[in-house]
Design a protein that fits this description.
Helix content is 37%, strand content 14%. It is built from 14 helices and twelve strands. The chain is globular and about 70 Å long. Strands 8-7-6-9-10-11-12 form a seven-stranded parallel beta sheet, with helices on both faces. It has a five-stranded parallel beta sheet with strand order 2-1-3-4-5. Bound molecules: nicotinamide-adenine-dinucleotide. Nicotinamide-adenine-dinucleotide (NAD) binds next to helix 5 and helix 7.
């Protein structure tokens, strides 16, 4: 690399990633632990050769124009890239990359954490004890639901859906799944059976969402879908908030149409619908599915390597708009 590219990082990332970046580039990192305001982002990207953005940064044409025509890459620190206007980036010749694979297991593990925490009322039980209410073993105390031997419904059989479903073997579960097409690799890895969405919702004891946020997956779960689910079923969402119609979910929980929900993501983050907050039969987490020390470090390293590759004349590792590379 002959030049030292000028790179802006919109929020502090694990040290190993910043150190690697700083060894080869001139780097400025947002020093404050908060999402930049729109006006700040517009100002900060100006004149940069590359930007590391987060899922909380909206990267649209205006931001790309503000960055300037010299800007070669926005490396998004997430596998999802619904925060980026991909067609605008492609039109302007800006490479967009994401961080797949390295966060697959951490995200699937958190979906399992939510599944068990919801089914066994872990958060409620722990609070009960800490509140000093535990007076001794009780035959009817905090009864939850069995997991072993139940039916798991997966919507979205990609990387995370596959990892999540593979881990169900240990609990002797039947796996049914839905995707835009049957997925033989998923079936081989998990023993899952391709099922249309309606039947999946009727059969599954646990429905776990692993789709990207797209116009076609917006409100994939709404009133009709909840009405099809078993009254004893639990919804797990570690995908993106707007995949679930949050108002409809709160209604379904309150009316006893479904038993519970474990959610890592919300429609209008960081806001959580007050109706959902009122539901005891939910476990609500602040978007931490990939939040392990190892995973977040590896996400940072991939984002940085994508940038270093671009300025060394090599292809990026995880480009999501490869048409840009073909056009060069
Ligand atoms: N909560 C978190 O912190 C967190 C962490 C990682 C990923 N995610 C989310 O998880 C999503 C999935 O990640 P991945 O790596 O498994 O992606 P992936 O691309 O490997 O898998 C997505 C799957 O969804 C399927 N799909 C698309 N539209 C569908 C539809 N309408 N109905 C059914 N299936 C459909 C795709 O065909 C694909 O098989 C990401 O896009 C991201 O938004 C969230």
């Amino acid at each position: 690399m002959n030049i030292r590219p000028n790179v802006y990082v919109t929020r502090m990332l694990p040290e190993a990633a910043i150190d690697l970046l700083a060894a080869h580039c001139d780097v400025e990192v947002n020093p404050e632990d908060r999402v930049l305001e729109r006006v700040e982002l517009l100002e900060k990207v100006k004149g940069r050769d590359a930007v590391i953005s987060l899922l909380t940064d909206t990267i649209d044409d205006e931001i790309l124009v503000a960055a300037g025509p010299q800007c070669k890459i926005f490396a998004n620190y997430a596998v999802g890239f619904n925060n980026i206007d991909l067609s605008a980036a492609t039109k302007r010749g800006v490479v967009i990359t994401n961080t797949p694979d390295v966060l697959t297991d951490a995200t699937a593990d958190l979906a399992w954490t939510l599944l068990f925490a919801t089914a066994r009322r872990v958060v409620e039980a722990e609070k009960f004890l800490r509140d000093g209410k535990y007076q001794g073993w009780g035959p009817m105390l905090l009864l939850g639901l069995d997991v072993t031997g139940k039916t798991l419904g997966i919507i979205g059989s990609g990387r995370i859906g596959s990892s999540f479903a593979s881990k169900a073997k240990g609990f002797n579960m039947k796996v049914v799944y839905n995707d835009i097409a049957a997925n033989p690799e998923f079936e081989a890895a998990t023993g899952g059976v391709f099922t249309d969405k309606e039947r999946l919702l009727q059969q599954a004891d646990f429905v776990s969402l692993h789709v990207p946020l797209l116009p076609s997956t917006h409100h994939l779960m709404s009133d009709k879908e909840f009405s099809l689910m078993k009254k004893t079923a639990i919804l797990i969402n570690t995908s993106r908030g707007p995949v679930v119609d949050e108002k409809a979910l709160a209604r379904a929980l309150k009316n006893g149409e479904i038993w519970g929900a474990g959610l890592d993501v919300f429609e209008n983050e960081p806001a959580v619908d007050p109706d959902l907050l009122e539901c005891a039969n939910t476990v609500l987490l602040p978007h931490v599915a990939s939040a392990t020390i190892e995973t977040r470090t590896n996400m940072g390293l991939i984002a940085v390597r994508n940038i270093l590759n671009i300025f060394s004349g090599k292809p990026p590792i995880t480009c999501v708009n490869p048409a840009v590379l073909q056009a060069e």
